[in-house]
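It is worth pausing here to work through a concrete case rather than discussing structure prediction in the abstract. The textbook approach is simple: state the sequence, then state the predicted structure, then interpret. We follow exactly that order.
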Amino acid sequence: MAGRLFEQAQAAGLLRILDAAPDAFVSMDADGVVRTWNVAAERLLGWSECEAVGRPLSELLSDRAGAEEQSRAAFEASPLGMAITDDLGRYVQVNAAYARMLGYEPAALAGCDSREFTDPDDAAGAARVPAGVRQVRLVRADGTRVWARVTITAIRGPDGGRRLLV
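Step two, the predicted structure:
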């Protein structure tokens, strides 16, 4: 009995920690049914814990305006700087965290060449690495440099060709 109470107390403590976390946390069972849903997941995905727990995650992600809208909300709400560029390196979309990191408003970066915001010494090497992880110095609006760990992922079009970079 004492062991079971201890396990329950540990689980309750873990749930309090997850609720305080700034990142969304969702746990599922083997069937994809949501078992745990924290406050950040509520903010990001729009479902309360009571609405989400016990339902398949796939249902929750497709139920409200489809997966595209969920992806857009996650992109915009992310505390991590995220940018989408076209094949020529022009910003198609940046989130608020990315724009803030560079000292701009998101709209001011749309259509700009991303290489203009990369230190020239790093831009040359960046062209040789079309996807993957690297560290670069980004140039802020005030001219200062900020180191960033950049992960680049290619988004392929229906024909298999690279369409966008995230």
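Step three, interpretation. Strands lie at 26-28, 34-37, 83-86, 91-94, 132-139, 145-152, 154-156, 162-165. The mean pLDDT is 80.
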